[in-house]
Each structure stands twice: as structure tokens, then as C-alpha cells.
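Q: For a teaching session next week I want to show students how multiple molecules come together into a single three-dimensional assembly. I've collected the sequence lines for a complex. Could you give me the predicted C-alpha cells for the whole thing so I can convert them for display?
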Amino acid sequence: MMTVHEVSKLAGVSIRTLQYYDKIGLLHPTGYTDAGYRLYDDADLERLQHILLFRELEFPLKDIKAIINSPDFDRGKALEQQIELLRLKKEHIENLMNFALGIKILGVKHMDFKAFDRSKLDEYSRQAKELYGSTPEYKEMEEKQKNRTEEDEKILADRFMLLFKEAGEIKNSDPASADAQNLVKRIQDYITENLYTCTNKILRGLGKMYSGGGDFTTNIDAYGGEGTAVFVANAIEIYCDNAG
Amino acid sequence: MMTVHEVSKLAGVSIRTLQYYDKIGLLHPTGYTDAGYRLYDDADLERLQHILLFRELEFPLKDIKAIINSPDFDRGKALEQQIELLRLKKEHIENLMNFALGIKILGVKHMDFKAFDRSKLDEYSRQAKELYGSTPEYKEMEEKQKNRTEEDEKILADRFMLLFKEAGEIKNSDPASADAQNLVKRIQDYITENLYTCTNKILRGLGKMYSGGGDFTTNIDAYGGEGTAVFVANAIEIYCDNAG
DNA sequence: TATAAACTATTACGTAACGTCAGAGTCAAT
DNA sequence: ATTGACTCTGACGTTACGTAATAGTTTATA
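A: Of course. Below is the structure for the complete assembly, covering every listed component.
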């Protein structure tokens, strides 16, 4: 059980924000002390993670609340949407970068505002919200394909983990070896095909998370045996350096 | 001279926003009709572009006003900062994507909020703001290196344009030729080295802008002769297709 | 030339997501 | 017992607009 102060520090949100989220019913702590002090547990933190992700995507808190409290709220689906939205946001930023380059270097004078267009982004987030406030008919339709996606998801995760199992088998060899490097490429490809374009830079970021000693490390090692995460991280480093 | 309606349509901001920006002195139109209707010219639109860029970067309007109205406001420098900030924002989003992947696929359970950390971004934008509200001493120091950067900038732009001059010379050859493809690579490298990491995806976006028929096209053709922009755009397409 | 249709202006009020006090109770340690 | 650190709950302020409401303006058409 954590106090507001601790959660605030850990998650990087202000105490006032936590109090506010409690007030509007977005994130109630699991308990209160006799004096009325808020006490948060791990499940609350998990909720907070989702809230913050949606917040980064500029969802109004009201909508976030509706989504998270929805009876058919599905973590996996939500994360998928979030990833897709992040992808769109990244694209938006890339457009802006090109736009800025245009007026800086090429001296574009006549007025072009296409780069500021957010319709794609807004369209998708509108859809994401609709999913959770929908009519019974719509829900039924959704329900059917939900099972499909749920299964798909398991398969998705399992196949990803298989890659780490493979890594475990060669974790004592050279991370620069052809086998290891090939595995890295397959990890990258797998992410790109199933989730989002995994550039070398992103891959490098992933590598750091793997070897960081946190839960990533633990989970990967659970599949491949101790040292797997660090081994993969090393292989990724080498891979990215060479691709450089 | 454009009316509010026209500017609103073109730039994708609401009329109310334009009226508001006028009211708070962020963007006064150059003129008014006898009836008090706002009239905007191209310079106003240019200002609006900068405003929108800063707004995308989450600068408060007050700060944007201070920056834009500053006597030592420097378009080029501002754009450079904006690009750097966009780069940081992109990185931030990539971190979030990896984070989302972590909890989705790897089942990271224990709580990690590092991905939400905005300190780097905030730090840089703080610095950017400081530049324009700084003490005389600081300003003097800045002034000295301003000349340097101003010169650098000219050189930067000139060298970039030289690439298009080169493109002009081969614009009647095959865009898939080794020469053309090599030129594309040099354009990409130039941007990456001097401005921001220009991935193939970004490059593809640039290509589209080049051939879009707008000012990009005009400006490039001014350096390489008619058809240069489209030629480069074609070469970029081929280049990116081959790179996968 | 009258008059509708479309545009614009200003004023006023509403909203979202907090930040910032202010006043008061709580807890841990000295 | 008191100090310092922490927490609570209002109440009000703020930013960047959206949303009417009311009124004047311009353009097109009958």
C-alpha cells in the first residue's frame, strides 16, 4: 500500500492530480486510513498506467473513465489501440518535422498547413472511443470478433515469447554470431509486422529495457533462462551498431 | 487579403480561435474593413504557422507571444528549436510505444513509469523559452554566436540547394539510375547530419511534398529547372521502395 | 430594391484539468 | 510536547478555447 506521495513520485503525477482523479471517479484508491489518507495498491498503479497512456494521447478524462470502466474494457485491445494511436501521432510529428524543414531550408513561402492536419488522428481516436460507448447491436457484433482477437492475441504473445526461448538456447554463444543477429532481426520483423514499425532506434530502446533489471528482464528470463534478457540486449546493441 | 473564414479553412483553426488570438495580441490581422471585419495577409499566415508549430509543442500561448514578439526573434533559430523539440517528442512517443509493448506482450507487471518521464522535453523547452526572456548579459553572449549561426545557416541552406542543382543536371535521366539514387542518399544523409534523423519514411514524406505542386515544387525547380522537384520525388520513391 | 442567405463582431458564460493557496488535522521522531 | 513532514478538503484562479445570443454586414437573387 502506497501513499499519495509515493505514487506521485513513482508515476510523476502531482498529488493534486491524484486527489482530483479520485474526486471525479477516474482512479479511486483501494483504501483509506482512518484519517482519510489515500492508500494505493498495485492494481491502482496499473489503472494509472492506462490512464496516463490515454492522457498522452489527449483523450479527455471523461472518455478515459468511460473506457476503463466499461464492462467490456479489454486491456489488450486498449493497448493495441494505444499503440496505433501512438503510431499516428509519431507520423504527425514527422510531418511537422518535414514541414519545419520546408520553411527553414527550402524557403517555402506560400502557405501550406497540411502538416497540421489532425483528421486521421482524430478519426481513429473517435473510433477508439466509440468502441466503448456503443449500442447493444454493435456490441454483439464486436463480441463475436472479440473471441477471435483474444485468441489471436494469445498466439501473438506466445509466438513472441518463442523468440526468447530460442534466445535462451543460444544465450551462451557470441551475441555477434550470425544466429544471434538473425534472431534480433526476427524480433524486429515480428514487432514491425504485428504491432508497429520497429526502427533500429526503437529496437535499441527495447534492448535497454530488456537489460534494465526490471520486470522486462524477469519476464524474459522466465522464458529463456537467466541471462537471456541481457544476451538479447547485447545482441541488439551489436545489431544496431552495425546497421548504424 | 483573406477573411477569417478563409484563414480558418486554410489553416484548420476555428474562427473563434483567430478572434481569440487577435484579442490576446498573439496574432493581429494586418487590417480591418470599415465594418470591423478582420483581414489577414501572407505575413500573418506565416506568423500563424509559427504559432501553430509552437502550439503543437505545447507551449503556452503567452510564451509563444513572448517568443514571437521578442526583438531578437529569429525565424531560423526558432525553427531549429522546433525541430529539436519535435525530435524529442518523437523519442518520447517511441518510448511510450515500447512501454505499451512491454505490458502487452511481455506482461510487465511491476510498475514502471519511466516512459512517462518528460523531463528531457520540458528541460529543452524551458531553455528555448529562456532564450527570449533573458538578461542583457546573456543576450550579449548569445548575440556573438548568433552571427556564427546565421552564417552557418546560409551555408546550410546553400549546400542543401546545391543538391537540387545537381538533381537538375540529371533530371532527364532515369530516376532509378545509380547517379539519381546516390543523390537521394546524399539528401537523406545531409538532413540526418544537419537537422534530424531522416528515416526512409520521413524521406518518403518529403518526396510527396516536393512533387505536391506547392511552394516546395516551385522553390526546388527554381534551383534545378522545371521538373527537378518531380524528378527528385520519383527518385525518392524508388529509393524507398528498394530499401524496403 | 427588397430580402433572404451567409458571414462577421462582440459580449457573456461554460468547460477541462488541473495549480495554488488557505486552514486544519495527522504522523513520526526527538 | 513540539517540530517538521505529510495529508485533507474547499475555494478560487487559469488556460484556451467552445457555445450560444444578439446584432450588424455583404452578396446573391427575385
